[in-house]
Amino acid sequence: MALMYTRLLVLITVSVTLFGVGSSNANYQKGPQNWRFDFNYTGEPFRHPKPIQSSRRIIVGGSNNWRFGFNYTEWAMKNAPFFFNDTLVFKFDPPNDTNIHPHSVYLLPNLWSFLRCDLRWAKRVANTSHGGGEGFEFVLNKWKPYYFACGESNGFHCQSGMKFFVMPTFRWY
Ligand SMILES: *[C@@H]1O[C@H](CO)[C@@H](O)[C@H](O)[C@H]1NC(C)=O
Ligand SMILES: *[C@@H]1O[C@H](CO)[C@@H](O)[C@H](O)[C@H]1NC(C)=O
Ligand SMILES: *[C@@H]1O[C@H](CO)[C@@H](O)[C@H](O)[C@H]1NC(C)=O
Ligand SMILES: *[C@@H]1O[C@H](CO)[C@@H](O)[C@H](O)[C@H]1NC(C)=O
Ligand SMILES: *[C@@H]1O[C@H](CO)[C@@H](O)[C@H](O)[C@H]1NC(C)=O
Ligand SMILES: [Cu+2]
């Protein structure tokens, strides 16, 4: 007797569940006009999958290039996300008689060094001459955070805004 009750209960539960799904489906399909209205069937999401986009070449700072007095942390936040194999291009003039405060590019080992602009364990990836011409190119080819900073004036440039970090991500398509 108890077993029969259990079976009946299960049966009812299953029916209710099926009915529930059925009715919610019905509701779902009640408003295809709305759905059609909201979604543009000729738009992006409904096209064939796009081929993998070729890696981008991104000028750090945009038209500001790599210079003193610009906040690169803000720039990086506005330009995120960055992807695997994106190339960052640092453009800065090599030193000469008039350009007496040139720049450089260092990689800091961790967030702590980054926050403090502590260059003690930093690795120089570009010296003051490497940013001329087409600029110094750095490819984001590892899945790790990259902490960039200018290493000039003993951390003063870094503290004044010449630093940013990026974490390259995978593309979804
Ligand atoms: C649908 O998307 C295409 C391409 O994105 C656009 O040219 C067209 O104007 C859109 N149509 C409507 C009705 O939004
Ligand atoms: C990045 O580039 C390397 C070398 O060109 C290639 O082997 C790798 O598949 C690329 N990775 C992605 C995620 O595009
Ligand atoms: C020195 O560098 C500045 C830019 O910082 C550039 O405008 C100028 O032409 C350079 N002078 C020489 C002699 O190369
Ligand atoms: C920068 O490095 C290059 C070699 O990659 C070297 O020839 C040049 O003298 C260096 N410049 C400075 C200012 O250290
Ligand atoms: C740069 O911008 C970030 C984010 O808005 C801010 O936290 C930071 O203090 C700014 N740096 C400087 C040197 O102004
Ligand atoms: Cu600098």
Kindly describe this structure.
This protein is α+β, with helices and mostly antiparallel strands. It has a domain at 57-95 and 102-166: Cupredoxins -  blue copper proteins (Immunoglobulin-like, Sandwich). The chain contains five helices and seven strands; from the N terminus they run H-H-E-H-E-E-H-E-E-E-H-E. The protein has helices spanning 2-30, 32-38, 72-79, 111-116, 156-159; strands at residues 57-59, 87-90, 105-108, 123-126, 136-139, 146-149, 163-166. The strands form two sheets. It has a four-stranded antiparallel β-sheet with strand order 4-3-6-7. It has a three-stranded mixed β-sheet with strand order 1-2-5, with no helix packed on it. The radius of gyration is 28 Å and the shape is globular. Residues 8-51 have low confidence and may be disordered. Bound molecules: 2-acetamido-2-deoxy-beta-D-glucopyranose (5 copies) and copper (II) ion. Residues 40, 42-43 line the site of one 2-acetamido-2-deoxy-beta-D-glucopyranose.
Keywords:
binds 2-acetamido-2-deoxy-beta-D-glucopyranose; single chain; three-stranded mixed β-sheet; Phytocyanin_dom; Cupredoxin; Phytocyanin domain-containing protein; binds copper (II) ion; 173 residues; Immunoglobulin-like; four-stranded antiparallel β-sheet; alpha+beta; signal
